[in-house]
Amino acid sequence: MENYSEAKICVRCSLPVKGLALLTNAEIAATGFAILLCRGERSPRVLGFTLGLSSLGHSEVMTVGGTDDEVFALLTHLAEQVTRHGQSFDVGSQCTSVFSDLFFREAPCGLHDLDIVSEICGDEIPTWLQCDEPLSFISLEEEPYAGRG
């Protein structure tokens, strides 16, 4: 059997907002950001967004796209570019070490109306950027964990 002792684990949560806020704040404290995903009742598209980047003076990033995994991978990559590498994103076309052409625009909606966002951010209303999902989305390779050869 494969050793999963160092595997990354994702939690799908049905806790009320206060419980979800505790998990989200713990994730932000550990990594500098959290990724939240949601889907409308009648929509196959996934809405994903970051929380925590605004504490670094950066806009929060959202995207609407395909699968949970694709949206999670894209937002994780972007958030890591901000928190680990100091990259800053703004309106317009930009690139990262993985994507040669990402397009960012002002987000058309204010996610601050979501209970979880107001619970985490309080009265601080973050600015939002929307990253259009890349047309040729590629699976991102996980970074090797410490201790692996």
User: Strand-and-helix sequence, N→C?
Assistant: HEEEHEEHE
What is Rg? Answer: 15 Å
List low-confidence stretches. 138-149
DSSP, total strands: 6
**Computed structural class:** alpha+beta
The percent range for strand residues is 15-25%
Sequence of strands across the biggest β-sheet: 1-2-3-6-5-4
Helix content: 25-40%
- CA(first)-CA(last) distance: 18 Å
Number of helices: 3
Mean pLDDT across every amino acid position:
83
Overall morphology: globular
Characterize the largest beta sheet: strand count, sense, and whether it forms a barrel: 6 strands, mixed
From the structure above, extract its key features:
single chain, 149 residues, alpha+beta, 3 helices, 27% helix, disordered C terminus
Report on this model:
With 149 residues, the protein is an alpha+beta fold. The chain is 27% helix and 19% strand. It has a six-stranded mixed beta sheet, sandwiched between helices. The radius of gyration is 15 Å and the shape is globular. Mean pLDDT is 83; it is low at 138-149. The chain starts with 16 loop residues before the first helix and ends in an 18-residue tail after the last strand. The protein contains three helices and six strands.
